[in-house]
């Protein structure tokens, strides 16, 4: 079955089975694939099947749709093609062509050379846990079932994104990436782009504040 492997920068997010004739991609929640980023258009592009071939078509987006680095209005897809929407990569696969692409996605699964990282909850924990070990390649901070680090929303009415940020583990260290741009704060400043984490850095998501540290 055709699938899309969705990554945010280098971090794997989820797999989507293309089990319907068409899938819309965009920032608004009515899309089959919703990407919560201000630079993504409300209805950015769509994937659809025609005559046994899957296509991607740009929907007059602001920042464009790219296939293998080339801006397109419409393009047929083959296994291994990468569709780029702002900071997101959507890798097209199918049952016959998936192994090579899957192997590429699994390559980062090497033991890091850095000390083990962790988060300590400093203020307003979302549950009873006070520490979170960062042992996965990608650790999500959010409210959805995909997130392993929960946060408590600020304000009177709660709310907040399902996925706010992701911490990725690489051989050289840990990186903090925004998913909902500007929602999380890094050392007191809105997080707009990827940063490398250092011992005792603080991360604020909603009203919950964390401290990043390396275990000795």
What is the H-and-E element order? EEEEEEEEEEEHEEEEEEEEEE
Low-confidence stretches: 96-112
Helix content: under 10%
Sheet-strand content, in percent, reads over 45%
What topology, given as strand order, has the largest sheet? Answer: 2-1-11-10-7-8
Per CATH, the class of the largest domain reads Mainly Beta
State the secondary-structure class.
mainly beta
Separation of the first and last Cα atoms: 45 Å
Residue-averaged pLDDT:
85
Helix count from the secondary structure assignment: 1
Total count of strands: 21
Describe how the helices and strands are arranged.
Elements: E1 3-8, E2 11-17, E3 22-26, E4 33-34, E5 45-50, E6 53-58, E7 65-67, E8 70-72, E9 74-76, E10 82-85, E11 88-93, H1 98-106, E12 117-123, E13 131-134, E14 138-142, E15 163-170, E16 173-178, E17 185-186, E18 189-190, E19 195-196, E20 202-205, E21 208-214
Parallel strand pairs: 3-4
Antiparallel strand pairs: 1-2, 1-11, 3-5, 5-6, 6-9, 7-8, 7-10, 10-11, 12-13, 12-21, 14-15, 15-16, 16-19, 17-18, 17-20, 20-21
